Amino acid sequence: MMKKEYVVITTISTHKSRFVIHKDELQKMNTDITLTDEFAFDWAKDSVLCNEIKEFSQEWLGDSFIDADIKTEEEILQLFDRENDYLKNWPVSQKMDWIKNWRETDV
Fold first, then answer.
1. Alpha helix ranges (H) inside 13-100
2. pTM of the model
3. Torsion angle of alpha carbons 82, 87, 88, 91, nearest 10°?
4. Which residues contact residue 26 at a Cβ distance below 8 angstroms, ignoring those fewer than 6 apart?
5. Whether 9 contacts 64, CB under 8 Å
6. Which of 27, 28, 69, 72 has its CA 20 to 30 A from that of 12?
7. What is the spatial distance between Cα 17 and Cα 102, in angstroms, rounded to a whole number?
8. Where are the alpha helices (DSSP H) in 6-72?
């Protein structure tokens, strides 16, 4: 009888995002100083991190593989609960149904 083992692949999906703001608008946000290019870069970066500038464009650059592993059914259920905390109250049968329905699209 085959063991109930699962292949786990971990990836990081990478996007290139671009943000655009006119220097005059940055200066309006910083009236106490004269805006140099260096300060404009720093202030714009901080504004992006604080979600104050809307995205100008985005391009998906692909997935990078981080690791691969083999896990038992028990380990998969533990991983499911840890990484899908909001679903951990599902019964085991529902979790296993979701895991076994692994195809992204019907082939």
1. 23-29, 37-49, 73-83, 92-100
2. 0.67
3. -140
4. 35, 40, 43, 44, 47
5. no
6. 72
7. 30
8. 23-29, 37-49
